[in-house]
């Protein structure tokens, strides 16, 4: 395939005279980098002959970018930065913390608004507000202007009443929630299928009463772990269920599927965006709980239910349960995968100990054997 002017025009859907730097860059990235490099001089001559020569800084940046890709020195970020330096490619992550979904994950609204932003940027380039040549040369002030134009557009109400950034976020969240609900429903059906073949443990009433008494006292305390358990169960108002079983199950279910976030002292708290800041124990624990997949919970709890009281339920053992599970299909061939699962469940077992699910040696108790499957079923059912 030759990257000639005809190819670029067809790829962009525009005549040669209307092609932008972004159009050419995206066409060059659509073919192997070596092939694009070889085609670059001829394409440049064709563009000049068509009355649309673009500029020396652009062609130099194209050669540098493609050379970096071909040699393996360029990172994904380098390529994205070069594409954005064309002046009309939307920035994937803006200074205002807006994130565009990947191209294959954009819904109808995001796709429409993305194209509208491209058109908006082209208008700014035509007026001279955005200077692609300065962007290609790495000019910081030009980049600042370029970013501000996009942030401002994302926050501005369109004539049809939509605010672009809010619409894209809402559509993305709807898609994520739908996928999450589907995954959760499947995990619940698998849990019920497996549990149907296992004996029903008897309720250890004395253990439950003692655990609930300790839990009520703990939830009244400040800081970790009480703050995390309150968030998990959604006890923001401080009102606790009167029933010991209800209280215990709500908290145990919340560990598998947290109901709320931690209370923030500052509404404009963006500590999660500061990659150099250190998270508090509360933030770290809740982040880990929210990261564990349904399949991992399913594998861990099902295996504990099968083995019963007395089985070791340490993070290391749970990671092994997940890796070796016959109930789920997870590829954990790499040591890093096992270590990641272990690190996530390291946030779980201390909370389980507070509920009496495991003892101080991380061994499953009678109460944990009785309650864990019920808590997981509750977590994945409508509350």
**What is the global morphology?**
elongated
Q: Give me the Rg, rounded.
A: 27 Å
State the end-to-end distance.
57 Å
Taken in chain order, the helices and strands follow as HHHHHHHHHHHHHHHHHH
| Helical segment count | 18
Percent range for β-strand residues: under 5%
Return residue spans where pLDDT drops below 50 for at least 5 consecutive residues. Answer: 265-273
Describe the structure.
The structure is a single chain. The chain is an all-alpha fold and 383 residues long. 61% of the residues lie in helices and 0% in strands. It has 18 helices and no strands. Helix 9 packs parallel to helix 14 (294-307), helix 11 (226-233) crosses helix 12 and helix 14 (294-307) packs antiparallel against helix 18 (366-379). The radius of gyration is 27 Å and the shape is elongated. The N and C termini lie far apart (57 Å).
What order do the helices and strands come in, and which of them pair?
Layout (H helix, E strand, L loop, with lengths): L4 H8 L8 H9 L3 H17 L6 H16 L4 H9 L23 H20 L4 H5 L3 H16 L8 H32 L9 H15 L6 H8 L10 H13 L24 H11 L2 H14 L7 H10 L10 H11 L3 H7 L10 H14 L4
Helix pairs in contact: 1-2, 3-4, 9-14, 10-12, 11-12, 12-18, 14-15, 14-18, 15-16
Question: Quick summary of this structure?
Answer:
The protein has 383 residues and is mainly α. The protein has helices at residues 5-12, 21-29, 33-49, 56-71, 76-84, 108-127, 132-136, 140-155, 164-195, 205-219, 226-233, 244-256, 281-291, 294-307, 315-324, 335-345, 349-355, 366-379. The radius of gyration is 27 Å and the shape is elongated.
């Amino acid at each position: 395939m030759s990257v000639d002017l005809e190819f670029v025009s067809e790829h962009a859907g525009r005549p040669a005279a209307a092609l932008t730097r972004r159009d050419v860059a995206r066409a060059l990235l659509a073919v192997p980098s070596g092939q694009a490099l070889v085609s670059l001089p001829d394409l440049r001559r064709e563009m000049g002959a068509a009355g649309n020569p673009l500029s020396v800084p652009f062609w130099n940046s194209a050669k540098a970018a493609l050379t970096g890709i071909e040699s393996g020195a360029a990172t994904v970020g380098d390529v994205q930065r070069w594409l954005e330096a064309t002046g009309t490619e939307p920035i994937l992550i803006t200074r205002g913390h807006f994130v565009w979904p990947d191209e294959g994950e954009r819904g109808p609204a995001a796709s429409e608004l993305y194209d509208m932003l491209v058109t908006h940027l082209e208008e700014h380039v035509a007026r001279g507000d955005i200077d692609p040549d300065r962007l290609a040369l790495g000019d910081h002030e030009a980049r600042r202007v370029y970013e501000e134009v996009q942030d401002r557009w994302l926050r501005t109400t369109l004539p049809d009443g939509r605010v672009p950034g809010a619409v894209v976020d809402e559509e993305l969240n709807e898609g994520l929630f739908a996928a999450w609900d589907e995954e959760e429903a499947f995990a619940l059906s698998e849990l019920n299928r497996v549990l149907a073949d296992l004996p029903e443990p008897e309720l250890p009433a004395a253990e439950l009463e003692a655990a609930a008494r300790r839990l009520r006292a703990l939830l009244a305390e400040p800081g970790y772990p009480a703050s995390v358990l309150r968030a998990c169960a959604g006890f923001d108002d401080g009102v606790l269920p009167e029933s010991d079983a209800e209280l215990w199950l709500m908290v145990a279910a919340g560990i598998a599927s947290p109901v709320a976030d931690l209370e923030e002292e500052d509404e404009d708290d963006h500590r999660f965006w500061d990659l150099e800041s250190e998270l508090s124990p509360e933030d770290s624990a809740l982040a880990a709980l929210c990261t564990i997949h349904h399949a991992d919970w399913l594998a861990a709890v099902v295996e504990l239910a099968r083995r019963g009281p007395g089985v070791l339920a340490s993070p290391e053992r749970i990671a092994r349960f997940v890796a070796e599970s016959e109930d789920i299909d997870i590829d954990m061939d790499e040591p890093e995968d096992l270590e990641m699962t272990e690190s996530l469940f390291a946030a779980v077992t201390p909370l389980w100990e507070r509920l009496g699910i495991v003892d101080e040696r991380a061994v499953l108790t009678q109460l944990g054997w009785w309650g864990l499957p019920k808590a997981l079923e509750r977590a994945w059912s409508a509350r």
